[in-house]
Amino acid sequence: MTNRLRTEIQEEEIIAEKKLIVEEKPVKEIPDNFFTQLFAKGTISTDDATRALPFILYIALLGMFYIANRHISENTIRDIDKLSREVKELSWEYKSSKADLAFKSTLTEVAKRADTLGIRTSETPPQKITVKEDIQQ
Q1: Within a domain: residue 5?
Q2: For residue 22, what pLDDT band results from cuts at 50, 70 and 90?
Q3: CA angle (27 as vertex; 22, 32 as ends), nearest 5
Q4: Which of 52, 74, 96, 119 is close enough to 114 for a disulfide, judged by CB 3.0 to 4.6 Å?
Q5: What is the pTM for the complete model shown?
């Protein structure tokens, strides 16, 4: 049984070696498009690319500033929206508190609350006190 296994392994190794030798990748041709004409065929030389490098870096830096500015402005807009919602909620709370205070300061509500303390409204109308002055001086 072991001999048969060894022969099968040896045969597989021989087949694998033959496949490795036979298989070769064909050389791919570079497609003829704008970029290959631009760089490979010598339209732009390395000197031209080196001279243009500061301008390309400047454009990249401007792009980064543009993106950062966009992020900052979006965050600011979110904060403004959040604060405006909070102001609306506080305005509603103020208006409801003001309405409750106006209701609680009415004469009947004050009388009800004072009645629990033992204070009652007088049943007799107020009287005017007049003092007569003597003009003898």
Answers
A1: no
A2: very low
A3: 160
A4: 119
A5: 0.47
